[in-house]
Structures are given as structure tokens and as C-alpha cells.
């Protein structure tokens, strides 16, 4: 997540587990409406469905806006993936219409050409976001560069070292670049064959030594390595590999790590989070659900209900009196 001094917030990838982490940051969901996908592996967009629907329940009233790359064929592109995400959540979405404020269910898909070199895909409120190709698995992945107020943030998503990163990441204040665990580690801890470990660790991802080489050429103000299990086992293997090709300091990313960036300084700290917090107050007012748009239950289901009318009537009368409303029960 990138948060700017003008209040804008941007999400770059949203892999499985991200929605829970975002919740713990206690940010109103109306501010988490802009997502940029580097590629369509589930560990990079697997929680998009949770942010889309869950964000509505948690208070987002704005459309969710998603930017992502095309593919070699339409079926490998962002538009194809997100349209089918909406299809597989048909029941989920239908079951909420007419039950709550669902304005946030609108979704805007902005698919761009993955071959674009330093192409502007977003330009609003003094913020410019550019994209350039990445090399990972099959055609389609991209990296991003965000510029605002004379500062530059670059995010690789997944990539093999490439000429576009080498050229367009120059001048980065923050460069978050993938650094995969060593091939030996994949064999030891994950049971990969040596052949698979070498393929994954050096051909479709960036190894520690390759990461160091990339940083030594780009020379960002702050180099940040991510995309590995960061614990006492892995750092002991990864750090020496980077050191072979890069002498400057490297931050090894963990969840909730924060970089406060100004033109004069970069401070590193850990965010204060509450993993048991309710969603924060909504910045925009909710509107009552339009019950006329709800899909009605069948007579079979309605007849199966135990309608404790005295309890329902008492609760409706109480809430209507408290808030000056005139809601009526469906049953």
C-alpha cells in the first residue's frame, strides 16, 4: 500500500491474506478503492474478491477501480479474470442487493497493454503511475512506477531481471523488488527437485544474487526485498547472496513494515495494528437498502421460517423509534 501526503492511497497487488492485513490497519474502505495488479497469479490477486465484496460490507460506497495488464490472448488478461470473478460470485452479490448499501459493488476494470514501456496508466490529483513489462512465467506481467511531489516509488511485482526495470526504475526513492529464496532452500524446505528449484528460483523469479545485481545498477535510495518467507532460516541464506553483488543496505520486507519517505530522509518502522478491530467509521454516509430490488425468497423457504413476530415487531419498533426511521420487516 502506498499512502501519499495528499491523502491518496494505492494498492499494488492483493495476494491471498492481504485483505486481513488491510483490515488490521483500520483504514476506511472508501479510501482503498484503487488497485494495480502486476500479474494474475493468485498470490498477487487472490484476495481481490474479499476486498471487493467484503469492502462493501465494511463500508466502501465507491466503485472498486482495478488496473491490470492484458495478455497474449484475451483469456490471459485482467478483464477476462475479473469478469469471471464477478461471475463466480453471482450468488454472493445477488444475496446482498436490496439488503444493504451496495453502491460499492460497482467495479471498474482498466486493462492496459502489457507491452507498454513506461506508459502512463493513471494520472490524477498530481499522481502519475507508469507501467513497463516484467518477465515472469508467460507474457503479461508488469511492474509499476508511481511519481508524486518529486518522489518515486517502484514496485516490481514478480519478475526476472530485465532491461525495462534497469531503465525506468532509475531515480527511485523506494524500490520494492522480488527476491526469491535460494534454490537450495526450495529443495530443502519445499521438496522441489533441483531442476524445478533452479527454474523457479533463477528463471521466472529473481534470486538473491540477481537481486543484488539489479540494485547495484539502479541504486535506489532504499532497496527492499520481498516475496519470500522472512524468518531466521531464510535471511541467513538470502543476505549473503545479495551481499555478493550489492554492498548497500537492504530491507527485508515483513508484514506491516512501513517506510516514511521525504526528500531528505527515509524512516523505517512497524505499523501499529489491531487485528481484532471492527472496520473504522465510514467517511461517507450510507443509504438505506432498496428492498424492491432484492430477490425474494421462494414460498418454500418462507414457509420454513419460524416467524417470532412479537420479537421482530419489538426490535423494529425500538430501532425505528431510536433513529426516526420507518423500516418494515420482510416477514
Write up this protein:
- Among the domains are: 2-172 and 256-270, Ribonuclease Z/Hydroxyacylglutathione hydrolase-like (Metallo-beta-lactamase, Chain A, 4-Layer Sandwich), CATH 3.60.15.10; 296-331, no CATH class.
- Helices cover 31% and strands 21% of the residues.
- The longest helix has 15 residues, at 309-323.
- Helix 7 crosses helix 8 (194-203) and helix 9 (208-218) crosses helix 10 (232-243).
- The strands form three sheets. A seven-stranded mixed beta sheet has the order 6-7-8-9-10-11-12. Strands 1-2-3-4-5 form a five-stranded mixed beta sheet, with helices on one face.
- The chain contains twelve helices and 14 strands.
- The protein is an alpha/beta fold and 331 residues long.
Which CATH top level class of the domain at 2-172 and 256-270 fits? Alpha Beta
Distance between the termini: 44 Å
CATH homologous superfamily label of the domain at 2-172 and 256-270: Ribonuclease Z/Hydroxyacylglutathione hydrolase-like
- Given the structure, what is the number of helices? 12
Q: Could you say what the CATH architecture of the domain at 2-172 and 256-270 is? A: 4-Layer Sandwich
SSE series: EEHEHHEHHEEEEEHEHHHEHEEEHH
- What general outline do the C-alpha atoms trace? elongated
Query: In CATH terms, what is the fold-level topology of the domain at 2-172 and 256-270?
Result: Metallo-beta-lactamase, Chain A
Radius of gyration: 23 Å
Largest sheet entry: 7 strands, mixed
Beta strands, count: 14
SSE-based structural type = alpha/beta
Proportion of residues in β-strands: 15-25%
* Poorly predicted segments: none
Write out the strand line-up for the largest beta sheet, numbering strands in chain order. 6-7-8-9-10-11-12
Mean pLDDT: 96
As a percent range, the share of helical residues equals: 25-40%
Amino acid at each position: 500500500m502506498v499512502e501519499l501526503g495528499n491523502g491518496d492511497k494505492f494498492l499494488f497487488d492483493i495476494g491471498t491474506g492481504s485483505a486481513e492485513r488491510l483490515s488490521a490497519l483500520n483504514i476506511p474502505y472508501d479510501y482503498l478503492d484503487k488497485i494495480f495488479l502486476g500479474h494474475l497469479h493468485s498470490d498477487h490477486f487472490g484476495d481481490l474478491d474479499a476486498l471487493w465484496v467484503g469492502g462493501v460490507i465494511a463500508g466502501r460506497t465507491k466503485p472498486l477501480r482495478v488496473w491490470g495488464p492484458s495478455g497474449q490472448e484475451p483469456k490471459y488478461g485482467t478483464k477476462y479474470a475479473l469478469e469471471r470473478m464477478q461471475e463466480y460470485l453471482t450468488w454472493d452479490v445477488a444475496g446482498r442487493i436490496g439488503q444493504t448499501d451496495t453502491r460499492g459493488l460497482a467495479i471498474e476494470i482498466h486493462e492496459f497493454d502489457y507491452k507498454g514501456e513506461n506508459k502512463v496508466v493513471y494520472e490524477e490529483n498530481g499522481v502519475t503511475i507508469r507501467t513497463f513489462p516484467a518477465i515472469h512465467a508467460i507474457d503479461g506481467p508488469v511492474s509499476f512506477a508511481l511519481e508524486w511531489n518529486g518522489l518515486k516509488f517502484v514496485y516490481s511485482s514478480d519478475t526476472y531481471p530485465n532491461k525495462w526495470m534497469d531503465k525506468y526504475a532509475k531515480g527511485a526513492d523506494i524500490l520494492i523488488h522480488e527476491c526469491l529464496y535460494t534454490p537450495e532452500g526450495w529443495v530443502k524446505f519445499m521438496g522441489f527437485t533441483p531442476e524445478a528449484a533452479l527454474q523457479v528460483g533463477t528463471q521466472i523469479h529473481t534470486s538473491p544474487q540477481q537481486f543484488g545485481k539489479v540494485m547495484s545498477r539502479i541504486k535506489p535510495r532504499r532497496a527492499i526485498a520481498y516475496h519470500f518467507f522472512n524468518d531466521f532460516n531464510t535471511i541467513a541464506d538470502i543476505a549473503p547472496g545479495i551481499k555478493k553483488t550489492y554492498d548497500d543496505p537492504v530491507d527485508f520486507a515483513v508484514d506491516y513494515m512501513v517506510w516514511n519517505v521525504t526528500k531528505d530522509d527515509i524512516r523505517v518502522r512497524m505499523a501499529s495494528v489491531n487485528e481484532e478491530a471492527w472496520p473504522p467509521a465510514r467517511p461517507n454516509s450510507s443509504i438505506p437498502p432498496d428492498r424492491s430490488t432484492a430477490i425474494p425468497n421462494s414460498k418454500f423457504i418462507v414457509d420454513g421460517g419460524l416467524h417470532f413476530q412479537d420479537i421482530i415487531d419489538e426490535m423494529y419498533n425500538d430501532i425505528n423509534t431510536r433513529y426516526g426511521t420507518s423500516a418494515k420487516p420482510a416477514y
